[in-house]
Each structure stands twice: as C-alpha cells, then as structure tokens.
Design a protein that fits this description.
single chain; mainly alpha
Length: about 260
C-alpha cells in the first residue's frame, strides 16, 4: 500500500541519516583516540605530566568522542527497534533511551573534571552503562534478523506443500519424479533445521541475565539458520528449473499432437 511504501521510504531516509551520523562520530572518535595515544606516549617518555592541561584535555576529548560514538550507535539501534515487531521492543527502547540519557550526563561529568583520577571515575561509569546497553543492542539486532528468518520460514512451509502437490501430480502422469522428491525432502529438512536453530537463538535472546557469551551463541545459531536457508534456496532453484523443464516438455508434446 501507499502508506507502507511511505513508511519504508521514511525508514530508509532515517537510516541514511543515522549512518551518516555514525560515520561522522566514528571519524571524530578515531582522531581523538590518535591524539590521546600520542599524548600517552609523551607521558610515558616523561615529556609531559599526566595532569597537565594538555594531557587532561586530550583525555577529555577522547572520552567525549567515545561517548558521542556510543550515543550514535545506540540511537541507530533505537531507530531499528522502532521499525521492529520483536518481543518487548517498547521496553527495550525505553531502556536504550535511558542509557543514552545516562551517557549525556557523563558528558557533563567529563566537563567538570580537572584530573586524570577524576576522569578514570567517569570512564568506569561509562563502561558500565555501555556494557549494559551493548547487551540490549546485540539482543535486539539478533531478534530483528530472527524476525526476517521467521517470515521466510513461514512462506517456505506453504511453498513446500504446494511443491509436494505439483510433484505428486507429475508422478500421476507417469513421469519419474524420484529426483524431485529427493530434492524436496532435502529442502524440507534444511527448512526444519533452520527453524530449530532460530528457536534456539530466540530462547537465548529472550532469557534473563543474558551474557555476552549467550549473545555470541545465539548469533551463531542464527548464522547456522541462515546457512541452512541458503542451502534450501539452492535446492529450491534446482526444483523450479526441473519443474520448468517438465512443463516445457509437456507443452512441446501437446503442440506436436
């Protein structure tokens, strides 16, 4: 519908904007990091005092650019969530929003520091906020992929039934469909395997007290699921080619008659 096309167009435009912002913040972060590492080398070489204005300002700049980059990443995740239909999406958006606000507060804390010791306290706080937010981000990204896999698997189920009927009809006309039957059986097997991997991933994404290791395991299940789908699609193409050949042969026979 026109409304759906408008929504997709709006999402794509917003996505481009967030990606531009993300790249911009990443560049600023890399530049600040490079400068910070140079200052660190000078401190190590005893050419500069760690609490000198130059050193503290370099650390502040690096920390601020790190926080801005984190906020840009979380804003991008939040945008993706708003267009997702995943479980507990609204609750996750609220949590991500809260993490962004906490990071904004830490930027104010950076501005009020005057020594490396005070900055270290902010660094620890920022790290804690980011670690919590990252788990939600990873979980949400995985669930978005899982949703897409689910949509594909739903269509595949009805497709395999339709193909089964077509192959049965061909068999009844006396055609040897054993190769097609084997391919369809393999196709169904890969789809079933993909579904099982998706379920395993979903159970980890929706679990309580999810760890990074859980996220890695869940993401790996999704990769395996996508790999099964890729193999299933290859078989599907082969089945369609075979069916098309039979259809062409049948039409040729009819025209000759």
């Amino acid at each position: 519908s026109t409304e759906n096309r408008s929504e997709v167009s709006e999402y794509k435009q917003e996505k481009k904007q967030f990606e531009y912002e993300l790249q911009s913040q990443k560049q600023e972060y890399n530049e600040a990091k490079e400068n910070f590492l140079k200052i660190k080398d000078r401190i190590r070489a005893k050419e500069l005092d760690s609490n000198s204005e130059e050193a503290v300002n370099a650390t502040k700049s690096y920390l601020n650019s790190s926080i801005n980059y984190m906020i840009a990443q979380l804003s991008n995740v939040e945008s993706n969530m708003e267009y997702s239909n995943g479980n507990e999406t609204n609750e996750k958006i609220i949590v991500i929003d809260e993490k962004i606000r906490l990071l904004e507060v830490e930027k104010l804390n950076v501005a009020n520091t005057s020594s490396q010791g005070e900055l270290l306290v902010v660094v620890r706080s920022v790290r804690g906020i980011w670690n919590d937010a990252e788990k939600i981000s990873l979980s949400s990204a995985g669930q978005t992929v899982s949703e897409k896999i689910g949509e594909f698997l739903e269509k595949s189920e009805s497709l395999s039934e339709r193909l089964g009927v077509e192959i049965k009809d061909l068999k009844e006309t006396g055609i040897d469909t054993s190769e097609l039957e084997i391919k369809l059986t393999s196709y169904i097997s890969y789809i079933k395997s993909a579904q099982e991997k998706k379920v395993m991933a979903d159970s980890l994404y929706s679990g309580e007290n999810v760890t990074r290791e859980d996220m890695r395991t869940a993401n790996n299940y999704l990769r395996q699921s996508l790999n099964d789908i890729s193999k299933a699609n290859k078989l599907l193409r082969e089945i369609f080619v075979k069916l098309k050949n039979y259809e062409t042969e049948e039409n040729g026979t009819k025209s000759r008659n």
